[in-house]
């Protein structure tokens, strides 16, 4: 049995006494150490510096200092040890601008407060918090050790090495696909701000609930003055556009008569909990588009996308993984590296320029 020092340290910041009470109970039952609670952002900042939590569960609407103001303060005044932030609010609804404000200012994950009484939704909350907190705090040392043994660094690990590899493995992609999860919205913004208008379509599978991806596409379009669209069943992809796969369902691409088309997949598959699944999207790309593809796997918990990165690489596609230092969670890219499924491992700041270089 773990002692308190070995447990994941959690702080809860919410103006509701009931929320603080029930969340503390839920998280303690999950084996976590509740080091502090706070009723607003100002008190939360003071306690954060005092207790150094690994995770902060943060409401949005609070007196004195809101959750968004709390995030803004952390972004400009980072503490010595930066915790992972999970937003827990009733404002996290379909199309809410608060979602993307929170993500843009550094929140790692989102959990919507249930519509009913919190005590009537204990099982749902246990499942959500257990999955997301453990995903955010999983150590990556084992992935790194195993990947070095298995791979002996058979990939480019900086931009110069990437350019050298590109001169040897010449590709002419007709499609760019990106898979991402935890920390993905921030990473994607970083990539898109450095991205030229491409001569091919770019398709993104970001793990998100249903309804959130339309607002995400609009947010990216407004921020970067680029054509960004949430895909709909039957859409034909156009060169130069950025497409977001719809949340809450799986996504596939098919190709007929040199036209690439998007198909929704609302089936449930064992072992594919997150939607849209990166593995399912990448597999359809491999089957229908072939190896003329640039595939990129970004930050995220778990291993979604890792298997199909390997399969794509084996067939001659070019695969880039985000590096550990710039990832919120080095699960998805780390597992792709571990399997030997990548050609290059780059910092997120280098991925936009790398995509441009492929098409230069």
Molecular structure report:
This protein folds into two domains: 9-137, Rossmann fold; 141-358, Rossmann fold, CATH 3.40.50.180. The protein contains 13 helices and 14 strands. Helix 4 (97-104) links the parallel strand 4 (84-89) and strand 5 (109-112). It has helices at residues 17-29, 41-51, 67-76, 97-104, 122-137, 141-151, 159-168, 184-193, 212-224, 278-288, 306-314, 332-339, 348-358, and strands at residues 9-13, 33-38, 55-58, 84-89, 109-112, 175-180, 202-206, 228-230, 242-244, 250-256, 259-265, 293-297, 318-322, 344-346. The chain is 39% helix and 19% strand. The strands form three sheets. The protein has a seven-stranded parallel β-sheet, with helices on both faces. It starts with 8 loop residues before the first strand and ends with a helix. The radius of gyration is 21 Å and the shape is globular. With 360 residues, the chain is of the alpha/beta class.
Summarize the structure.
The protein is α/β, with parallel strands linked by helices and 360 residues long.
